[in-house]
Amino acid sequence: MNKMFLLIFALFLTSCTKDVILTEQEVDSKIMSFVETHFPGETIIQAVKDKDFLHKSYDVWLTNNIYLEFNRKHDVIEIDSEKQLPDSVVPAKILEFVKNKYPTLFITDWSLDDNRQEVELSNDLNLIFNKSGDFLRIED
Q1: What is the rounded distance in angstroms from the CA atom of residue 39 to the CA atom of residue 95?
Q2: Which tens digits make up the pLDDT trace of 81-137?
Q3: pTM for the model
Q4: 91, 133 in Cβ contact below 8 A?
Q5: Which residues pair with 66 in a beta bridge?
Q6: Residues ≥6 apart with Cβ < 8 Å to 44
Q7: Domains of the chain, each with CATH number or no CATH
Q8: Who's near 126: CB < 8 A, 6+ residues apart?
């Protein structure tokens, strides 16, 4: 009985997953404004609304291999790039820490979750910060 319930529940959760490719006109204005402000000259290649049972997010791919993820409120929660991120997208406290401790490196990725922020530097070093931007540790 328990196995059957788990199987049905798993099927229910996977059936609730829905990815919708958005046209440029369907991309929320807050997301468009973020892209235009912080990544001028880049264009949206693809935008996808990811929706599953408990979570909704927006994945946006820009030219020059830039990936952005936005939460359900259209706030950016992840930025991945092969090049240096614009200073304007990195919280000031984290940017200052990196510039002081690693003056020859730059930030290529940034992410935010419930409890922490993470940046990846140009040498693939990952730095973990708390939500307020205080340095916690280096992570492999």
Answers
A1: 17
A2: 999 999 999 999 999 999 999 999 999 999 999 899 999 999 999 999 999 999 999
A3: 0.85
A4: yes
A5: 62
A6: 24, 27, 35, 60, 61, 62
A7: 18-139 (3.40.1420.30)
A8: 118, 119, 120, 138, 139, 140
